[in-house]
Design brief:
Structural class: mainly alpha
Strand order of the largest sheet: 1-2
Helix content: 55-70%
Bound molecules: zinc ion
Order of helices and strands: HHHEHEH
Largest sheet: 2 strands, antiparallel
Distance between the termini: 87 Å
Number of strands: 2
Strand content: 5-15%
Shape: elongated
């Protein structure tokens, strides 16, 4: 006894697919919003910082590190959009990958054993955090000098 017309299996599959795509669009919109805010913050911080000259990270070291990580972002903040959208894998949509000094170069002055590969979003987020810490340290040092 079925009054309502039964939806076909195909209709249900399509409905599930639509829901999955809607979810994915929301995830991507969240990432775009998050990155827009991050970009504004990075710009403000960059304007406050003096650039520090440092030697480039050798290309072969970047590739070896990327391979050791299985071509996935190291996700240092636990908030990586590549992990949200692509299981962490680097791809053209995320801007491939960038090499980062785990401990910032300005404090460690060391590249060997101190690099990780990040997506551009995580690299920006980590660089922002490092700049904030550096600016706070400069401010503390300036205040200590005044006393
Ligand atoms: Zn990432």
């Amino acid at each position: 006894m079925e009054d309502a017309p039964q939806r076909s299996k195909r209709e249900l599959e399509l409905e599930i697919q639509v829901l999955r795509l809607e979810r994915r669009v929301r995830d991507m919109e969240d990432v775009v919003k998050q990155q827009s805010e991050a970009l504004k913050e990075s710009t403000k911080l960059l304007l406050k910082c003096k650039p520090v000259a440092r030697p480039p990270i050798p290309h072969d070291k970047k590739l070896i590190q990327g391979a050791e990580q299985g071509w996935r972002c190291a996700n240092p903040t636990g908030d990586c959009p590549q992990w949200l959208l692509f299981d962490g894998f680097f791809n053209a949509a995320g801007g491939l990958f960038e090499a980062d000094h785990c401990e910032s170069w300005s404090t460690s002055l060391r590249t060997s054993g101190n690099i990780q590969c990040l997506c551009s979003c995580c690299h920006n987020a980590k660089s922002r955090r490092d700049r904030i810490i550096a600016l706070e340290q400069q401010q503390e040092a300036a205040e200590a000098k005044e006393e």
